[in-house]
Amino acid sequence: MTSEENSQAMIDLIRVSKVYPPDIQALADISLRVDKGEICYLTGMSGAGKTTLLRMLCGIDTPDRGYIEVAGKELSKLSSAEMQDLRRSIGVAYQDFKLLPEKTVAQNIAFSMEVAYRSRSFIQHRTRKLLSRLALSDKMNTQAAKLSRGEQQRVAIARAVANDPVLVLADEPTGNLDSDTTELVMELFYEYNEKGTTLLIATHDHSIYNYPGSKVVTIEQGQVIPAQHTQENQDGNARDENQSVPLSSSQKGSQERSQKEELYQQLVIKDGLEAVMGKEVEV
Amino acid sequence: MKFLFAVLSQTWRNIIETWRSQLLSLVTITLSVLIFAFFYLVYMNALHAGDLLNNDLRLIVYLEEQPDPALQEEYRHKIEKFDQVEKIDFVSRLAAYDRFKEQLNENQDVLQEIPHDFLPASIEIYPKRSLDTLSRIKLFSEYLQSLPGVLKVQYGREWVDRFYSFIQLLRIIVFLSGALLILTTSFMMAHSIRLTMLNRKKELELLRLVGASAHYIRVPFFLEGAILGAIGAGIGLGALYFLFSWIELRFSGQGVPGMFSFSFFSGPSVAVIIVLAMLLCAGGSFTSTRKILYL
Ligand SMILES: Nc1ncnc2c1ncn2[C@@H]1O[C@H](COP(=O)(O)OP(=O)(O)OP(=O)(O)O)[C@@H](O)[C@H]1O
Ligand SMILES: [Mg+2]
Q1: Residue A250: CB within 6 Å of ligand 1?
Q2: Comparing A100 with A268, which gets the higher pLDDT?
Q3: Most CB contacts within 10 A, which of A43, A45, A183, B203?
Q4: Is the pLDDT reported for residue A12 higher than 50?
Q5: For the domain that residue A73 is a member of, what is the CATH number?
Q6: Are A160 and A171 part of one and the same domain?
Q7: For residues A59 and A116, what is the distance between their CA atoms, to the nearest angstrom?
Q8: Hey, are the CB atoms on B208 and A58 less than 8 Å from each other?
Q9: Closest-lying ligand 1 atom to the alpha carbon of residue A53
Q10: In chain B, what residues touch A119 (CB-CB under 8 Å)?
């Protein structure tokens, strides 16, 4: 990989694995590259490892094996202070929101800006703007605990984008939203993307990943399913839209890898069946 | 600058939110400072009284012979070999006679028949005014007694010994209450900050997640500790001053010897005690926030 390519990548994962005790393989040798300014949708069944992947990217969790680079920084090499610097430039909307229930909506949103030493007027202005964009203006001083799940979700999204991050990681950002509100959220995301923010959105929501030029990555049991596979199975019209985005070398690489991985998986399944049935099985 | 502002407003918010739970630590700090400052004040004043008493403190060495200047030099040399002294006076037989005569006033005539050199020559030694001198005065007198040509050594043995043990006792008490101050304030602070941190665990974790630097999180706790320390020490010293003024008012003009006139801490001492308490509290809270770094 040349350094020019390197500087293009916002996220670069190479053969990352994570096993949770006792032996849950949340990520299995996964490789993924998201370029700067891209919108990448991460889909896959529940339990596929989407959240785990996002956790690795913002350094909440560390992989057992593999290389992770975010915004040009190799995560395993960062000191604690450097990790904090990086986190200030990444906005994360967590699947479980991680709001402070006893604080108000405005206070929750201010959090991500305060740690970056934004001025009080900036924080106020930005909070107002985001709340009106997300149809929450009247909830500004409501305690987060008193909001509905959909409202909490939007507050989490507002907090994620408030500090003008270079990268937004959104975990199931529209999970609790109706289609109109989903549109509000996606419009906000697109607007940030047009200003240069890279988006990685984990979602089950088929309706949101039709945006032209975006990349859809499906993971299953901690591994990336090849790109064409995804488009054939889930989204017929994604093919021609994707023509503007040429397959990157790592995507091609991941196609080659996935063939090997399929074999490997078959072996794993065989092992598993044998363990359950107590005798040899033909696969 | 931005950092300072952010940290100050965060500290302010913390205090507003948690001052109730900090009341107990505040009381503890106040009491510790009060106890320590009380004994320290007594100690300081005892030292001061000791200084005044020291004015009268001198060793008188009576000599067999009147020393000639060469011998005087030799005595001076030997005395200074043992200890630095404030002043050494040689009193000749005649000078002693004159002094005695003066003391007799109208009864001077009893001296008429007596030869002018009937009193022995002596050396008057004024030791340096310090506690060390008090503790070593006995040794000093034994040393002087062992010098050649010395008849007898005199000093106010009784009170010196007693005063010295009193000062020693005070010193131990001050030391103990100082240790108590250090332990209670720093541990109390560490403990209460740890409680606060437990209460706000979610918030602190979230701060880490959105990229707050360690300093951004820790410095407000540090400042909170320092502020509590300052308030606690301020109240403690204030209470002591109140007590002090009350005692002074009660006993002034009741014939308490001037020697024992009490004085309060000087401005700098007050500042030192407050700064000490602030550092202890800040230090205590700083140690409990160390594990924030691992969130
Ligand atoms: N802390 C953990 N300890 C043990 N197992 C875990 C832990 N976190 C995740 N897992 C397991 O790892 C696998 C992947 O989980 P993950 O949360 O990444 O899935 P997901 O793709 O986000 O699913 P969903 O769409 O339901 O959010 C799951 O089997 C999950 O049970
Ligand atoms: Mg998830």
Answers
A1: no
A2: A100
A3: A43
A4: yes
A5: 3.40.50.300
A6: no
A7: 18
A8: no
A9: 18
A10: 2
Residues A154 and A128 in one domain: yes
Interface test with A, best of B9, B10, B210 (most A CBs within 10 A): B210
Q: What is the pLDDT of residue A68?
A: 94
- Mark whether B128 and B239 lie in a shared domain: no
- Please indicate, yes or no, whether residues A135 and A72 belong to a single structural domain of this protein: no
The dihedral sign for the CA sequence A24, A227, A93, A186:
negative
What residues in A contact B212, CB-CB < 8 Å? 84, 115
Q: What pLDDT score was predicted for residue B293?
A: 63
How many Cβ atoms sit within 10 Å of the Cβ of residue B88?
Answer: 16
Distance from CA of B202 to the nearest CA of A (A): 7
Closest Cα to atom 24 of ligand 1: A46
Task: Kindly identify which residue of chain B lies nearest to residue A60, measuring between CA atoms.
Answer: B209
Give the residue, by CA position, lying nearest to ligand 1 atom 31. A47
Instruction: Indicate yes or no: CB of B211 within 8 angstroms of CB of A159.
Output: no
Q: Residues of B at the A interface (Cβ-Cβ below 8 Å)?
A: 2-3, 5-6, 10, 202-203, 206-214, 216, 293
Question: How does pLDDT run across A208-232, given as a tens digit for each residue?
Answer: 776 666 789 999 888 888 764 334 3
Question: A35-52 pLDDT, tens per residue?
Answer: 999 999 999 989 999 999
Pair B112, B198 in one domain: no
Strand boundaries in chain B, DSSP class E: 59-63, 85-91, 122-127, 150-154
Q: Kindly state whether residues A64 and A176 are assigned to the same domain.
A: yes
Q: Residue A251: CB within 6 Å of ligand 1? A: no
Domain containing A151 equals: 103-164
Q: Measured in Å, how far apart are chain A's first and last C-alpha atoms?
A: 37
Assess if residue A120 is contained within a domain.
Answer: yes
Question: Which of B254, B240, B230 lies closest to B44 in space, CA to CA?
Answer: B240
CA distance A169 to B175: 58
The answer to whether the beta carbons of residues A25 and A51 sit under 8 Å apart is: no
Instruction: Say what the pTM is.
Output: 0.71
Last residue of a domain, one of B155, B187, B202: B155
Q: Is A212 in the pocket of ligand 1 (CB under 6 A)?
A: no
Query: What pLDDT score was predicted for residue B52?
Result: 67
Count of C-beta atoms within a 10 Å radius of residue B47? 14
A81: chain B residues, CB-CB within 8 Å: 213-214
How many whole angstroms separate alpha carbon B285 and alpha carbon B120?
Answer: 68
Look at residue B82 in the predicted model and tell me its pLDDT. 79
User: For residue B213, which residues of chain A lie inside 8 Å, CB to CB?
Assistant: 81, 84-85, 115
Considering only the beta carbons, identify the residue of A100, A103, A115 that sits closest to B212: A115
Structure tokens belonging to residue A69: 């680079």
Residue-number span of the structural domain to which B205 is assigned: 2-52+162-293
Residue A237 carries which side chain, given as an amino acid letter? N
Instruction: Outline where chain A has alpha helix (H).
Output: 3-8, 50-57, 80-88, 105-114, 120-133, 149-162, 179-194, 227-234, 238-241, 249-277
Q: How many domains does chain A have?
A: 2
Taking the centre of ligand 2 as the mean of its atom positions, its distance from the CA of residue A98, in whole angstroms, is: 13
Query: Residue A97's closest chain B neighbor by CA?
Result: B206
| Torsion on CA atoms A57, A58, A63, A65, rounded to nearest 10 | 50
Residue A96 lies in a domain: no
